[in-house]
Amino acid sequence: MIIATTIAEVRQQVQQWKQAGLSVGLVPTMGYLHAGHASLVDRAVTLCDRVVVSDFVNPTQFGPNEDLAAYPCDFEGDCALLDAHGCDMVFHPSVSEMYPDGNGKTDTYVTMVDDMPRQLCGKTRPIHFRGVCTVVAKLFNIVTPDKAFFGEKDAQQLAIIRRMVRDLSYGVEIVGCPIVREADGLAMSSRNTYLTAPERQAALILSQTVVLGKERVAAGEKDADRLVAQMKANIASEPLAEIDYVAAVDGVTMQSVHTLTKGTLVAMAVRFGKARLLDNFTVEE
Ligand code: AMP
Questions:
Q1: Ligand 1 atom at minimal distance to the Cα of residue 30
Q2: DSSP letter at 178?
Q3: Which end of the chain, N or C, is less surrounded by CB atoms within 10 Å?
């Protein structure tokens, strides 16, 4: 596996692959990799001839009071996982390689005029998706992948990236990949490492609430407000859980809906101590 730290190295290698007629897949990550990330790499390996994984904690997607400085990292562990899953190149740039002005500063951002990035997570993280779109656009320009792989755990991110690709005519196919969970149901996340033992136990309320929501929908619930109220009440039964949001939205536009139909995204963000965790499901019928 090639370890690249500069944009020039990545460009040179990708050019060689493309000249040889090989397709290229990109998996953007912030490192501290787990089986959820590995599932994206596995999918990329099956669909592409060569797979590039970016491993970069992107400063522009963190607000001033967020966990940028505390964000966990283990680059050696990441390389071992990526090598074992058949990644061909890991791109691990410095902040100044990605943002030459230093300190994660840039004069040019990709921002969306639609209010998609201001819904759900955007309500408490107002600059988050501007940073995500900017870094993903940069990665697309650097790697020029045929396909790029994103997890459904970050459903709003996936929807926004799909919209950005459409609006800016990136010739990249976006592949969404299902949520990978721990054996007890907790959605895998690099931020799970912030949880104390009691918080880790309490965080099970998230996946349990997803199960509850799916059961209510399977039983015929169509009223989004009632479903959200039931899910909120369930989460509130856990004293260590602090709800950021529970919402039912259109899975493409992220606009609130009142009726649950196929494609409705039911998403939540809940804090447990220092960790803010996400979970969601999409209504299937
Ligand atoms: P991150 O390193 O948290 O920025 O995540 C990198 C990519 O991995 C994103 O597309 C995430 O949605 C995806 N991802 C993270 N956790 C999971 C998971 N538990 N299951 C599936 N995909 C995930």
A1: 2
A2: P
A3: C
